Amino acid sequence: SKSHLTYSARATTHANPLARRLFEVAEAKQSNVTVSADVTTTQELLDLADRLGPYIAVIKTHIDILSDFSEETITGLKSLAAKHNFLIFEDRKFIDIGNTVQKQYHQGTLRISEWSHIINCSVLPGEGIVEALAQTAQAPDFPYGSDRGLLILAEMTSKGSLATGAYTSASVDYARKYQSFVLGFVSTRALGEVESSVAPVKGEDFVVFTTGVNLSSKGDKLGQQYQTPQSAIGRGADFIIAGRGIYAAPDPVEAAKQYQQQGWEAYLARVGG
Ligand code: S5P
After folding, report:
1. What is the reported pTM?
2. Pocket flag, ligand 1, residue 91 (CB < 6 Å)
3. 3-class SS of residue 210
4. Ligand 1 pocket check for 211: Cβ under 6 Å
5. pLDDT tens by residue, 42-69
6. At 60, phi and psi to the nearest 5?
């Protein structure tokens, strides 16, 4: 993996424009934090995005948990992303046949393709899901150009996760095969060494997002398992995703700053800075 290189170096060499932008944002803001803003109203979401915006590289949404999703949600998120220079990652975890996910992504009530730079999918349905999402985003008439990318959910943090072994290997296969649209993985570690039936592509540089990051808890009562920013970044995370550790803290802004600082120090230690 390229995890020993700086974000700036990776921004210079990466073939994918959205990956380049992601690394540039991280470098410019000195933040590798993705906040998982799992709140349930538009006002709470936009309020968090505005207050935490300066300290994060990416905001991750679960747009379908909002009780009042509307045009205002989209307009608000887009304008805050521009104001604070962060990217938007809708954690929809597409998992269906190609024909269905194309509609879920590019049509429908939530209009995900319109506002979310990054999406993710499970490869449980097989290669076709990645092919279908890539086809939609790379169609000549797709309105958002090369400003969109996919993360493959290659592993999960929950206890007893079945996203292991052959599933994780297939995730790497498809990432290699659809490299022009796949930015990388949601995984608990770098996956370059994982057995894959597709040979590594020369110069490949998959971006690793690691969720289940929390400074003060080991897990929850529903099987979530946490690690610290240091541990996640040591295992190869390029971006750390924290939800309750930040938004449910007594002071979310202070918490965001703390994750930012620890995430950045762990990154600097990794690249030898
Ligand atoms: O394996 C995973 C993958 C994801 S995307 N485990 C996860 O927890 N997530 C998501 O990360 C989950 O849906 C939630 O939005 C966030 C973790 O939230 P937290 O409050 O436990 O930090």
Report:
1. 0.98
2. yes
3. strand
4. yes
5. 999 999 999 999 999 999 999 999 999 9
6. -105, 130
